[in-house]
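Appendix B, record 7
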Amino acid sequence: MRKPDVRRFEPDDLLSFKLVSEVVLSPDGRWIVYVLEEVDAEADAYVSNLWLIPAAGGAPRQITFGSDTNESPRFSPDASRIAFLSDRGGGPAQLYVMRIDGGEARRLTDLASGAGLAAWSPDGAALVFSASVASGAPPGAPRVVTRALYKSDGEGFVLDRRTHLFVVPAEGGEARQITRGDANESDPAWSPDGRHIAFSRTRTGPRDAHRSDLWVMTPSGEGLRQVTRGCPLAAMPSWSPDGGALAFYSPREEGGSRQHVWVVDARGEAEPRMVTSEDTEVASFPLGKVMPPAWSADGRELAVVLATESTSEVALVSVEQRTLRKAISDDRQITQISAAPGAGRLAFLWSTMRLCGLLGSARWDGSDARLLVNVNEAWGEGRAWPDVALREFRGASGMENAGLLMLPPDRGGEPAPLLVHVHGGPHAYVEFGFTYRPYWYVLVSRGWAVLSLNPVGSGGYGKEFADRLRGRWGERDLPEHLAAIDALVAEGTVDGDRVAIAGKSYGGFMAAWAIGKTKRFRAAVSSAPVANLESHYGTSDTGYYVDPHDMRGEPFDRRERYRELSPVSWAGEAATPTLILCGEEDHRCPIGQSEELFAALVRSGKAPVELIRFPGGDHHLAERGKPSHRVFYSRRIAEWVERYCAKGRAPDGA
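Structure tokens (predicted):
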């Protein structure tokens, strides 16, 4: 019998891939609304609409239509209405409300800069939301910069506007601004009795405007009081059922990326308590949305998503005992949860080692977990899916490192060429799912192996594991990548003569670092890299506070260390063909970093080098950029590594 044709992956496949980007459970636990994002290839844009599905299972029903962006849905307290944001009609997104049983959506706002995520009052009579308000000089005028945080990736220059809070009646009426001043406010949350609103507010000092605290006020904007002071980045507050406490997220150290769960007295009369240990951290993903901690109905537990080694899980945190019990914990990555504590239910999104954006539901304790929606079921049929597994390797330091290993399906006995992918952060972790890096699947379907390691410094393995890389970028983790390659070569899985390295952000740093330190790689791809730590410190939107944390000091105190760990310092040694990619509007790892690396490699002249600039692209262009840019991005990476790792081709610079 003839075997059915197997479809190989191609870069264009991301144009037909669908993504569930957000999930919200109704307060009564009966309904789930989710955001389905699709690509409009002709318009080179994304379309997102809201869908409704019974939480117990059943057929989903589309409730918004058209070629607009409809997102950020929130159920009213009685679950009869949904508030959401939409850019229908053109212009910035505005706030709308619609009934779940049908009918036209009613527009609530008409603000020049649009509206932000909304929260319902407990009685369902009003909504509070954040919105951008113009301030300072008019467009085109000289820009006076007075604070270190003056630009933001994905937003651009931000000193000409502030984000403040507004309240609008749910039945329509004027949106009333309730906060003012030089700070930015976000993450509003109404108290259970409706008498107060908690929110996150940035500080206003020239060097600490990236820091934020929790504040509380009345819905009219009066009675303003500060609740937290010592936490460097307090955000996403949620009220306890009795209104006496607030749970929120914050790292412990300024510049740290590892978020923890905290609880504080809502009156601000006591210091916040960290209720998770330093070895646990809140999970976050570029394509996921972190939700505030969810209180249990009795106020004793908080449901959160935690990064756990190579995966992530739903954990229930005891507020008083600071202990954890696992609700949903297996070999997948939970990317978002939404809770209905009164109904004892959870809705959640997750990624497998192949796909992302699957939707399910479970009881509060994780039992009765079920898949409700796989929007890519038909898309995935007949594909040449890779054989995927989590593998452990013993690194050069003797520590165990887990890695995601992808191998061609039905492969023969011949060793495969290998792409080593390095994740970002560096205190992040490998994300699961096709849409993050389609070129993995393209290469595997062409006979390649892909290894993406969680080396020392990665998140999800505890504080000591993450801190070991601070001040030692490249020095401690490159040997672990090389040791994993050696192990795969020794067992005959991969061809040690045809190995390439690729990565974005910190992964771009590692690719640029590796080519100056070893001749092991036949090809390299450095996307949005940190190439020069000294200049990154002053040009990145986060460099001035993140780099001192990761380098264990300011550049004026550790100048030589910043230079020693900068890939441009070693570019003269590089003899590996290198592809560099970056968005021209990237403010996290600005394009100047890519330009410095490109110029150094060109002047060195030891191997081919190519720089690709993406107009309008920010730091997340590979995951959320224009669809055509993402297809081009994946295609060029696959072409580059195949070209220079071709069988029988002599290594450049050998």
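Remarks on this record: The CA atoms of residues 238 and 337 lie 14 Å apart. The two ends are 48 Å apart (CA to CA).
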